[in-house]
Amino acid sequence: MATLFTFGPSHYCEKARWALDLAAVRYREVRWAPGPHLLSARRLAPRSLVPILCHSKTIIQGSGRITDWAEASGGMNWRSGASSAEKAEIAELEAWADDALGVAVRRLIYAASLGTESRAVAAALFRGAIWWQRPLAPLMWPISRRAIMRGLRATAEDIPDARAALERELDHLDRLVSGQNRFLVGDHLGRADIAVASLLSPIIFPAEHPVYGTLRPWQAQRRIMEAYRDRPCVHWTAALYRDFRRPPRDDAAAFPG
Ligand SMILES: N[C@@H](CCC(=O)N[C@@H](CS)C(=O)NCC(=O)O)C(=O)O
Fold first, then answer.
1. Best mutation site among 50, 60, 65, 68 for ligand 1, i.e. most ligand atoms within 8 A of its Cβ?
2. Distance CA 38, CA 41 (A)
3. Of all helices (H) and strands (E), which one includes residue 2?
4. How far is the CA of 7 from the centre of ligand 1 (A)?
5. pLDDT in tens, 81-122
6. pLDDT of residue 180
7. Who lines ligand 1 at CB under 6 A?
8. Ligand 1 atom at minimum distance from 7 CA
9. Are residues 93 and 168 in the same domain?
10. Does residue 154 fall inside a structural domain?
């Protein structure tokens, strides 16, 4: 069986999880905590980023490559019937979701939260982590937190810039989802939809999300959710989760180690 290494609340990890679930791939999820994950990730892969999927001797790092693998190995072929123009459109949308939308969502949430509510963020990030990382993660958190703030330019001073950047991406997505079609490309749920919905999910906390469904948003997080709740792209994502994401996986199903 494959193993997916994640940070539970990471939206890139949710993208990989959803892809594997949709492709009906059997896997177990092992959650890591930021900080101690560095040791584990570097033992497996060239970079410290999650998600990482291990299957037999194959190691795949990154949500896009894991989605490629799910598509090739799983029971569902999302691209069946897609023309080459549609495939190019899907690739372009996924790249935008990964490089612009996902980055902007994460930056605003961290910028708004890490200054004043860093304990709540840490609690969310460490929940369900593999047993040996759980005591280490809080000890490393002051360093991990500073590294996140510096690396992602996510301090309180960055909030106005982070907010403007996210709103530019949300405006773009509002236009994309305001057409007649339910799906971004073609007439059925595909990888562009999964990428976009997963990467937007942190500002929605859909009940069907395997992690956010059972996580209480903290104050700064709630303010962000409230600010965008009436956006077409938020309604679109919430509906996609409601209609296509399986109900929350019991936390016990994520292997603690
Ligand atoms: N483009 C990558 C982004 C993954 C990513 O940014 N992962 C973050 C968590 S959201 C991470 O692992 N950070 C820890 C690190 O960089 O060591 C993907 O699609 O998988």
1. 50
2. 5
3. strand 2-6
4. 9
5. 678 899 999 999 999 999 999 999 999 999 999 999 999 999
6. 76
7. 7, 10, 12, 48-51, 62-64, 98
8. 9
9. yes
10. yes
